[in-house]
Prior knowledge:
By secondary structure, this protein is of the alpha+beta class.
Amino acid sequence: MRGRLWFLLLGLLLAVVRMPGIAQESEPDARTVLQAALRAMGGENLKSITYSGTTGYVSAVGQNYAPSSDWPANQIVSYTRTVDYDAKSSKLDYTLRQGTGQGGPAGGGRDCAGAGGAGDRRECGTGARA
Length: 130
């Protein structure tokens, strides 16, 4: 019993001695952490970014023809987005192919050239923020 009491007292003493050290150690703020990560990636002078892909699908959630079937989905044939940080704008350009999966065909809409109907459909748009 006496050994346990000394062990408990020693643990309590160490905890009390360590507490002021914990209170003085401050975590870096979010801005400092993000700036360090940006420097580590070499992105300090980043002006724009472009990313692209050629595989995927787009579907409308909740627009299935029957509760037991999947959502209709269009296949993504090509996708490119460019973000210009200086101009505070972005450009999106993608081409969809009408889906033929379990959810049935997904259709509607016109492409950015004004054409509609079957086959590949090209969508494009820009977004700017003042």
